[in-house]
Write a structure and sequence with these properties.
This protein is of the alpha/beta class. It folds into two domains: about 110 residues, Enolase-like, N-terminal domain (Enolase-like, domain 1, 2-Layer Sandwich); about 210 residues, Enolase-like C-terminal domain (TIM Barrel, Alpha-Beta Barrel), CATH 3.20.20.120. About 30% of the residues lie in helices and about 25% in strands. It has ten helices and 14 strands. An eight-stranded parallel sheet has the order 5-6-7-8-9-10-11-12. Strands 1-2-3 form a three-stranded antiparallel sheet. A three-stranded antiparallel sheet has the order 4-14-13, with no helix packed on it.
Length: about 325
Amino acid sequence: MSRPRFKLEIQHWPYRQKIAISRGVLSTQTVLHATATWEDHRAQGEGEQHESDETLSMAAAERGQALLSQFEETPDRETLRRQLPADGLRNALDAMLWDLECKRSGLRAWELAGLPEIDATTRFPTLLTVTLDSPDEMAQQARRWGNAPVLKVKLGDRTPGGLDRDIERLHAVAAASPGSRLTVDPNEGWSPEGLQRFAAAVWSLPLALIEQPLPAGHEDLLPGLGLRIPIAADESCTTLDSLSRLVGRVQYVNLKLDKCGGLTEGLLMCREARRLGFQLMVGCNCGTSLAMAPAFLIAAFCDFVDLDGPLHMRNDRSPPISYAEGHLHAPDVALWG
């Protein structure tokens, strides 16, 4: 019987334009691309280490290749879940194994996962991101998205006077796109006092939620702030074990496959999060259509979907996921799953 051949490589995918968030400015995404070839089948997956850190990516690629070389046959997803930490490497390998099982079995990923049918007509509304910039430029970004159902506005200006400018930014975006619901993501950039002041200043706007306003680990402060706007945990929501610590502190949890280590863990988290009473988001760290494809299955559980990553990339994989009118469509079987 033939053995599978695995390959893990680092790839660089430039953004259409630089992306600013509260922690810095990004111009290129560094991803891990995992492939498996077995008989006539070729499978693939993609993951990103923390904010495209090149050193972390190189170390992860070496670690992953060494692990794969130990397997005489295809490792199962649960083995990877036990042996690797939850990160972009495990996400890439997990996605590759899902894709390989689909191709060898002739089943789609939604069938293997026991989910309702996903076909070529399935689509979900996705948040469209307005990146951190001046109020005028962010208003221009909002206009370029057209009549978007939901905009995600990056905030978290950490310079002196930054909170006042964040408030000005959100008002500018709301005025530029009056038909859109809004979410904001300061990426851990505010203090409890700043969060309270921001929430009071934007109460009249159609703001659906605030994502990770405080640094991870400070969620215990949220219930005492008297906020009327729902809060979502992002950096604080990592793996299955993190969910219980967030009960009573946030209303939403944002599941990202690069954080939790892949679709296998993500599906477990979806079911547990629902059991615990959370509402759900699925997000991404930008990425090509290959990174969005496994997350599309998670979207079936979610109240908010934040999978616009490929729209920010200069190039994409083939065949790409289709986006239209603020919605993303199901991935083609030739891409994944």
